[in-house]
Amino acid sequence: MEPRTCPTCGFPVERRVWDVDRELLIPCRCRCSTLEARRSECFPVPEMASQTFAADDGKFGQDVVEKCRKYADKLPGLHSGLLLFGPPDSGKTFLSCCIANAALERGMRVLMRSMPWVLSRRYGDVADTIEELGQAELLVLDDLGAERATDYGREIVYSVIDTRYQSRRPTVISTNLTRTELAAPDDMACRRTYSRVLEMCLPLEVDTGRRRSTRERYADMAKEFGW
Ligand SMILES: [Zn+2]
Predict the structure, then answer these.
(1) Using CA atoms, how far apart are residues 134 and 63, in angstroms rounded to an integer?
(2) How far is the CA of 13 from the centre of ligand 1 (A)?
(3) What domains can you pick out in the chain, each with its CATH number?
């Protein structure tokens, strides 16, 4: 009996096992189905799976895209992460998705989550969430800074960051915080978190000047409504 292979990726969809004295074939995941399962685990929104370096239309700053691409090319061999900072809507989430997709293609287990998502976990689930985020081979965290409103939020975020720091696994973080807010936050708990982030991640400013105008945004909405 030959194990069957996947018509798409050519990898086996069965593997041989020995049961006492006879050979059995049991189902297993081929490369593309593993990748598919990891993609859906990685992204909270399925559309994020299509945001790749290949889909970059060149309108973002080439320099910053190139740096992110080079970073992703070095995975999975890196301990250090990236801190993408810059104004809202400047391409940070797009770049984060590109890096996550490239890492998935390279066979890594990746999780992409936003800080507001982490903070919205039920109290009883928080410990498990922190552990799960700590175990990802690459963690991509969107919207650092959203936790500043409460003591509870600040503590959770510190735990997530510190767990990543201890694990020496890479973390890609994006934030709308400015250089000053990152370097000298007025709050002690935030200071502790951001100094750890700056220890484990190389800051990269993302201000591609591609922010959409309100007019463009409204035009898209009107189109969506069929007006
Ligand atoms: Zn396959």
Answers:
(1) 30
(2) 7
(3) 1-40 (no CATH), 43-215 (3.40.50.300)
